[in-house]
Amino acid sequence: MALNRLYASNQTVLIKAFDRNKRTVIPRKRLCGDQLKCSESQFTDNVEQVFNENIKFNSADDVLFSSDFSKDERKTIENIAEKFHLQTDTTKAKGRTYLGVSRRITTAQDLVAILEQSNGESNKYLLVKPGKLKWPPK
Prior knowledge:
alpha+beta, 4-stranded mixed β-sheet, 4 helices, 7 strands, 31% helix
């Protein structure tokens, strides 16, 4: 199911927000400091901490890992995301490739329920009541 389509019911309207500036971008330096290479266990612990801090159980927020991670580090992030039952995707912006990590949301109804618990918005979606739709969203 494509969640990027408009979802409407008699009570709510779901819009995918296009503002990526609200998304949390994690640079490599945050996970390894100034070290060129950090230990695998340190890297794994730091990635798990990022997931716990930024992708909460009842949240539709996601995290972008910056383009300065090595291929092996990105693979480690993807493996940890899978262990946490999260989904990953690749996003390109301004000539850079980012690794996106978010919760797996299978239906629009699930997403609407999560957004209703989060004051109607996340860093990616906006929930609007019918008749109150103003475009573009702020």
